[in-house]
Write a structure and sequence with these properties.
496 residues, mainly beta, Jelly Rolls, Immunoglobulin-like, 4 domains, five-stranded mixed β-sheet, 33 strands
C-alpha cells in the first residue's frame, strides 16, 4: 500500500491566506473606484479676502503663502488674516465662515455624508463668525474646537473668539451645544456641556477654566454684551448675513502683486513689500468706473499701525506721488480729494494706488482705483438721465422667483419702471434707486418691521421729474413657521 504524503503546516494555512488576500484586494479596489467616481469632499469651498491681507498654509506645506480670491480650500489647510484683514469662506454658496483680523483657522477635516457635509474647524486664535443655512440643499454640520471648548452646530449663526487667554461663544441665531474640555494627564476630558441660546454668550477666562479643572461648575452664560453689538465685526457680519456680498464676481479691494513677478504690476508702478495690511477703499464702492463729475472724494480705512498714507497718481503719461496731508498718524480712516482743477484727475484714464507707511520703514501693498473721467460727456449725461414717459412700477420677482409666498423671514422684491426720478414703497424712498434706473428693489424682513405673518400689502410709487406719480401694489404672503425661536437682533431700516 502506497503511503500518502504528509501535509506540511503551510498547506493548512495557505487557503486562508488566499481568502484574506482576495478580500483585501476587493476592499482596496472598491475604495479606489469610489474615490475616482465620487465628488471631492472639498468641492465648492472657496476663500475670499474681503479686506486687508490674508495668508494660506496648504496642508503639507512648510511656509505661509499669500491668499488670493477664489482659492479652493482643502482638508488640512490653514488660513489667517493680518492686522486689518478679513476673510470670507464660501461653502456651496449657502454657508459662510468669516474671519476677523489677526485670526488663524484650520480646516481640520471635511467629510461628506450623503448629501450633507461635516466641516471640523480648529480656531488657533482670533475671531470667527459662522452662518450655517438651515434651508440649504447641502446641509453643513460645523464643529469648532478651541483650547477648552468643542462646539457642534447645524443651521445656526454664532461667533467664537479666542483672544488674550479668553474664549467666548456668542449665539446670534438658534441654539448650540458646547462641551467644556479640560486637560487631564495629557488627555482632553469633557467636564460639562453648555446649551447656549439665541442672544446669549458664554465666556471662559483663566478663572473659569481653573474652576472647571477643580470640577466646579461656574456660571458662564450671560446675555450678549452691548460692546459686542457695537463692534465693527458684529455690524459687518449682520450686514453680510442679510445681503451676502458675492466676492466671486469681482476681485477684492486689495491689489496684490504676484510674488513671482519682477516687482511691477500692469500699471508699471513699483509694488511695495511689507507686513502692513493694504488700505481698503470704501468710497466709491467699485474700483473701476467712469464718471462725468470733475471732482471726487475717495475714502477708505487702514490699520492703526499706519503713520503716513501715500498715493501714486497716474494720469496719462504723468506720474506723481502725494502724501495725504489730512491723515493723522494712527487713524484708521483716510480721505483724498481728486479734481480736474487740481490736476489730479484728467480727461481719460486715471489710476490711483494707495498704500500705508508704518514704523521702521514698514509699508503695505497697494490698493488700486481706476477712474475714467468723461469730461466731454458731463453735460449730455445730466440732460439725458431720465428718458421716456413714466410707467407704472411693477414687482417682477420675489427672492429671484415668481412666487410671492415665503416661509423664511426675509424677501427681496425686484421690480421694473421707466421714466422715474425716484421710487417709494409705503412712503419709504429707495435709496439705491437713481433717476432713470429701470430696476428697483426692496427688502422686507420681520426684524425691519415691514413683514408680518400672513398677507402683506405694499404700495409702490414712481415719481417723475415734473412731480407726476403712478402707483401700484404688490403682496407678500409670509407663512411664518409655528416654532420660530430666533430673530436677528439688529433693527436697521429697510435697505435696497
Amino acid at each position: 500500500m502506497q503511503r500518502l504524503p504528509r501535509k506540511r503546516p503551510i498547506d493548512y494555512i495557505l487557503p486562508f491566506l488566499i481568502i484574506i488576500c482576495a478580500g483585501v484586494i476587493v476592499v482596496l479596489g472598491y475604495q479606489l473606484w469610489s474615490s475616482l467616481n465620487s465628488e471631492s469632499n472639498e468641492k465648492d469651498i472657496f476663500m475670499y479676502t474681503a479686506q486687508g491681507s490674508s495668508k494660506i498654509l496648504p496642508w503639507g506645506a512648510g511656509e505661509w503663502e499669500r491668499g488670493y480670491n477664489g482659492t479652493r480650500l482643502l482638508q488640512g489647510d490653514s488660513i489667517k488674516t493680518l492686522s486689518g484683514g478679513r476673510i470670507v469662506v464660501d461653502l456651496f454658496k449657502d454657508h459662510f465662515i468669516r474671519l476677523d483680523e489677526k485670526t488663524e483657522l484650520v480646516l481640520t477635516e471635511i467629510k461628506k455624508n450623503g448629501d450633507s457635509y461635516e466641516v471640523n474647524l480648529t480656531l488657533m486664535e482670533g475671531k470667527v463668525w459662522l452662518n450655517s443655512n438651515e434651508n440649504s440643499k447641502t446641509p453643513v454640520k460645523f464643529t469648532v474646537t478651541t483650547n477648552h471648548t468643542f462646539i457642534k452646530t447645524v443651521g445656526t449663526i454664532y461667533e467664537v473668539e479666542q483672544v488674550a487667554g479668553s474664549e467666548i461663544i456668542r449665539v446670534i441665531k438658534g441654539t448650540i451645544l458646547a462641551d467644556i474640555m479640560i486637560d487631564d494627564n495629557g488627555k482632553k476630558n469633557k467636564v460639562e456641556s453648555l446649551q447656549i441660546g439665541v442672544g446669549q454668550e458664554a465666556t471662559l477666562t483663566s478663572k473659569e477654566i481653573q474652576m472647571y479643572t477643580n470640577r466646579e461648575s461656574p456660571s458662564v452664560v450671560n446675555a450678549l454684551s452691548d460692546s459686542f453689538k457695537e463692534s465693527g465685526f458684529y455690524k459687518w457680519n449682520m450686514s453680510e448675513d442679510q445681503v451676502p456680498s458675492d466676492f466671486s464676481l469681482s476681485s477684492s479691494n486689495v491689489t496684490l502683486p504676484d510674488e513671482n513677478a519682477t516687482g511691477e504690476i500692469e500699471t508699471g508702478l513699483p509694488v511695495l513689500e511689507g507686513e502692513l495690511a493694504s488700505p481698503v477703499i470704501t468710497t466709491p464702492s467699485t474700483l473701476n468706473f467712469s464718471t462725468p463729475e470733475s471732482s471726487l472724494t475717495i475714502r477708505g480705512t487702514t490699520v492703526a499701525d499706519t503713520r503716513k498714507m501715500m498715493v501714486d497718481v497716474k494720469s496719462g503719461e504723468t506720474l506723481n506721488t502725494y502724501e495725504l496731508n489730512l491723515y493723522l498718524s494712527g487713524n484708521t480712516e483716510w480721505s483724498f480729494i481728486v479734481s480736474d482743477e487740481a490736476g489730479t484727475m484728467k480727461s481719460g484714464l486715471n489710476e490711483y494706488l494707495f498704500y500705508a507707511l508704518g514704523d521702521n520703514e514698514t509699508n503695505s501693498g497697494k490698493t488700486k482705483l481706476t477712474v475714467a473721467y468723461n469730461k466731454e460727456g458731463a453735460a449730455a449725461e445730466e440732460e439725458t438721465t431720465v428718458t421716456g414717459p413714466l410707467t407704472v412700477p411693477k414687482a417682477t420677482s420675489y427672492n429671484g422667483g415668481t412666487s410671492n409666498t415665503v416661509n423664511a423671514d426675509g424677501i427681496k422684491v425686484v421690480g421694473s419702471v421707466s421714466g422715474a426720478e425716484k421710487v417709494l414703497v409705503d412712503g419709504y424712498q429707495l435709496k439705491a434707486f437713481k433717476a432713470g434706473d429701470t430696476v428697483w428693489s426692496y427688502t422686507a424682513k420681520e426684524s425691519y418691521g415691514n413683514l408680518k405673518s400672513g398677507e402683506n400689502i405694499y404700495t409702490v410709487e414712481a415719481v417723475a421729474k415734473d412731480g407726476s406719480k403712478k402707483t401700484a401694489t404688490f403682496a407678500i404672503i409670509y407663512n411664518k413657521p409655528a416654532a420660530t425661536t430666533t430673530e436677528m437682533p439688529a433693527t436697521p431700516e429697510p435697505t435696497t
